[in-house]
Amino acid sequence: MKEFRAKCHSNIDFFQLRSVELPTAFEVAIQDTEVKKQDIQKATAEKQKQVIMFETLRKTADYQRNVTLVVYINVLIKESGGGRGPGDNPAVRGERAILPDRAGQVFERVRLLKKGTGK
Fold first, then answer.
1. What is the share, in percent, of the chain residues with pLDDT greater than 70?
2. To pair with 38 at 20 to 30 A between CA atoms, which of 10, 57, 115, 116?
3. Mean pLDDT of the chain
4. Phi then psi for 85, rounded to 5 degrees?
5. Local confidence band at 68 (pLDDT 50, 70, 90 cut-offs)
6. Total structural domains in the chain?
7. Which pLDDT does position 97 carry in this prediction?
8. 100: Cβ–Cβ under 8 A, 6 or more apart, which residues?
9. How far, in Å, are 7, 39, 92, 95, 107 from residue 82 at the CA level?
10. Which domain holds residue 103?
């Protein structure tokens, strides 16, 4: 080192080999390891994609269920003489009122549907 520094007037802090001959079995093992790492990353990304897709489908189904319940309630309220629309019905506006006999059945049916036990 002293001779190199004296003749070349420079220092060597790091040294990197550009070409190294490794045993074939070792090179194959390194390649296999890298391929497995890529397979794991790919599988993880696919799993995350599936989780997001199914979560989106579940949320869409929940939303559609709520829309269906609102439509169903409105139809049953109209059939039971609750008025021209949901705004005409005191129960829908959150007020306490005596509704037609069928209204109790409607709200019980909706409660069961929300629980997932009604048909």
1. 71
2. 57
3. 77
4. -165, 175
5. confident
6. 1
7. 46
8. 80, 81, 82
9. 104, 61, 10, 13, 13
10. 2-115
